[in-house]
Design a protein that fits this description.
There is one protein chain. By secondary structure, the protein is mostly helical. The chain has two domains: 36 residues; 45 residues, no CATH class. Helix content is 52%, strand content 0%. It is built from four helices and no strands. The protein is elongated. It starts with 12 loop residues before the first helix and ends with a helix.
Length: 107
């Protein structure tokens, strides 16, 4: 009977990692298929469920009378409503007011 020295089997973490990566690579199509199915099912359920909440916002702007000397952009007054209905725009009114001021016609 011969007594041969057997070398102990050692396991390295790199071997385990490579084995796990190899198994994942072989199952890549199954993993991709499951991911696509899960995404599609999630999208389908999201569109089929009724909405839980609905948001609504109302913007309330202060209505001020314009200063006789200055009109600021974004001011809501009769002139801006008039311009929406086909009247002179606030920019044209401001330009006319500046011309009047330059000619000294304003009091």
């Amino acid at each position: 009977m011969s007594m041969e020295a057997s070398s102990p089997q050692t396991s390295y973490p790199e071997d385990e990692l490579l084995g796990a990566l190899g198994r994942l690579w072989r199952a890549k199509w199954l993993i991709l298929l499951l991911a696509v199915l899960a995404g599609g099912l999630t999208l389908l359920v999201t569109y089929l469920l009724p909405p839980v909440w609905k948001a609504k916002a109302t913007l309330m702007l202060p209505i001020r009378s314009p200063s006789p000397l200055v009109m600021t952009p974004g001011m809501v007054d009769a002139s801006t409503v008039g311009s929406a209905l086909g009247g002179p725009s606030p920019l044209r009114m401001l330009a006319a007011r500046c011309r009047e001021l330059a000619r000294g016609r304003c009091r």
